[in-house]
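Example complex used in Figure S2.
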Amino acid sequence: MESIDLATMTIRTANEVIRGHGAAHQDVQIFNPDAKHYLCVGLTNPIRVRIRGSAGYFCGGLTDGPRIEVQNNVSWGVGDNMLAGSIVVGGNAGAIAGEAMRGGEIVIKGNMGSRAGQVMKKGTLCCAGDSSFMAGYMMYGGRMIILGDSGEKVGEDMAGGAIFVGGRVTSLGSDARLEAPTEEELEEIRTFLARHGLPMPDRFKKIVCAGGQLTYPTPEPRLRSLPHPRFTGSRADYWNEKVVEDNRVKAHIGRYRIRGYGAARPVPHLTDLAFRKDLSGAGTDPAAIAGVHLRTFIGGKHGARALDLSMPVMIAPMSYGALSGRMKRALGIASRLSGISENTGEGGMYAYERAEARQLIAQCLSGRFGWNIHDMKRADGLELYISQGAKPGLGGQLMASKLTPEIAAMRGIPAGMDLRSPSRHPDVLGGDDLIMKIEELREAVGWRLPVSLKLGAGRTRDDIKIALKDGLDFVELDGLQGGTGAAGNEVAEYVGIPTLAALMEALEGLEEIDAKGQLPIVLMGGIQNGVDAAKALALGADAVGLGTAMLIAAGCIACMQCSVGNCVAGLATQKADHVARFDIERRALSMHRYLESIRRQLAAITAALGYDDVRGLNRNDLVALTPEAAAMTRLPYEPSAGQGR
Amino acid sequence: MCAIAGLLFKKARPAHFPMTTGSALTEILDATLHRGPDSAGWALYRPPLEGELRMRFFIDANGDAQKEIAAVHTALEAQGATVLDGEVLGCTYGVRVGFAGDVLALTRAIERRVRLVSIGASLDIIKDVGQPYALAPRYAIHEFDGGHGIAHIRLATESGVHPDTAHPFWACGFADVATVHNGQLTNYWIMRRRLERRGMVFQTENDTELIAVYLAYRMSRGADLEEALRTSLEELDGTYSYLVATRDAIGYAKDKLAAKPMVKYEDEDLIAISSEEVGLNRLFPGRALATSEPAPLTYGLWRRAA
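Predicted assembly (951 residues):
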């Protein structure tokens, strides 16, 4: 057995050494751990690791296979997202033990903190002592065994799995109920406990999901698609067809409505800005356009391998689930052909998309659906999703009609439920937790990949400062106009902050702490073309993200019913006959051509403004066409500068 | 968005404990530095003075310090307090005054004229922008070797990064009471308006100050500290773990969501508190400590032996 002394070695080095021993199938013992964080994070070999003392946060997190023994205590998040293997803790565990587990077993000989097993999906979490409140909060599967007493609200909002409590159940959580354990289950528990030398209690209470909240009671009726001009813009009637439709549907279902797509409400946007200079001659000089430098590196700020974009454009995160597998594949191809990055969105990495995209960002969401160490290692960037512009502060939704068995399996959750993702991460409840989560992700991939934050515009001025201090490599900032696969209608229209205002807050927030230009911002939320992109860059964004625009380029008819799952274009559906209509190659090429139109527009505008590098674009190139946009951006109000639009 | 630290020796510091109280607090902070890189502070309980008070004020290092020092002297003398000595320390000015009157009345009289940091027979709050290892030598923290103290590092989220938004916060008007806090209060403005209507004064928009002012208010209405801690759990909404120190004790309160960690180590000699166990291990390297986490929705008070 090899030895590591943490009194003389940093965690970062130690984890590299442990992984090295793992590759050589060498067992390891760790001395002087002194409750340090991130021990064994990202380890994927079935070696034995003995920790001679206490471990800190995320011990054995993001692992697959190792057998870890901790002599004393562990802090928050032991075994976070582990896939297989075992962790045995001799003492107590802090909060969120076994959060987002996807297999293997964790045994805690002492007590465990609150929210143990939050969003766990598989495997066994066993606590020989007492558990604090909300054990099994939002758990989707797996087995929890608590030999002592369980705290309040055990099984709160659980959707699957079972919790066995040997002691007292202080109170049941919302949508949880008691049922009698079967003989078979008890026998399995007996075997499990005997294997770990733990006593079998006389009796067990079993807690499962009552199922009352898994699906919406009355489904929304199917509707005709209404063309946008009939309900949005200045010419739409006050009581237009959409308003009437909305009223009638609510009168039928008795709750808020869920829809896809972005906000239809007009708010000041990049189209309300113009270039100061007359650009009517833009694009006439092919040599000047060809000479414009567009290549953008983003994410290398802390030594990771930066994303290498052929132009400052990314494809916005959109999930396999919200979108069909064929559409995800086409996005991968289009991103590769245009030399930009693609993003997994929620729900894990789709293998075909990984194969097609040259640069793929893996997104980690609150429910940790599909999140695992192997896909992290296959990614080109990691992204922690805090929120999105269309529904800041709320979790994602995926209606049962789109949650196929394949997607449910990939996400590790029961099929057939109306999936509502948690609105917050189990382990990120503030800026201090965020930095620890980011470091865990970095440790897991050996600090090799950029780590970004997806921020829906809310308290952007504060959030951007936290993102900078927490050492993120870049931020994807998403405004109100950002699209979504499913959100409450009123949420999508009224909760967010316009993209333009969000960017200004972010830029000013950084300036307030003398950090102008120190945190790259990828702006998304209603970017429609290369002119919008150029304006966003001139205002201060470092790149833009395209979501809805990509869908339209791939054939989206803008019916706003992505959530229903009947997408006739085969993009936002999982129905086999609809998906079959989607021609991957043809649509990928459409999206690629659209991206190339953006490249050309960006280059033409840059050249016409007199720069040979897209990074030359700046605020002085812009004016505002409306008083609202002027107020929002503090640009000069020049309503007559229309030529530059 | 921070880390808290506390250390209390039940009797005198045992000879085998390898560092001073000030150094120990600094070590706990440094071990958890990732939680709060913006500012740091210590509430140190020095030997109590008889019939005298320790007072500390902020002075503007870039501005006219002499003018501010003069203002401190004028304000104190107008209230019948005799300045016995004074010393500039970093961005603060510390004085020892002869004063036999009511501290609350003195505070009310001067708090709008000068920038008070702390008042106490024993308490001395030192806080500044920067990180503990850099600040400690500047403020001679390692020289402090008293029986107890609390400390804090801050990651600023809402209010700005200035010395006066650093923790600890003095319970304005109440000698020797100081607070540090990790978390956020969600009913800050409701509680602030309520307390302001009752005459309490706020110097910043930092929610920790509200905890200090709240405790001060409750005690001004006759509650003892334990009672004030108890009612704070009912009245302060949000998620927090906070510590409060008095001349001879350290108390804590932890909200029902318990999303902000706090780990305690206790043996026959001492009680040490950190946001993470890794902070406690700095005091006892290489040892597997028997630690515990105070339960959600609890409060408590650890006193020094008389």
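Residues 584-608 of chain A form the longest helix (25 residues). DSSP finds 17 helices and 27 strands in chain A.
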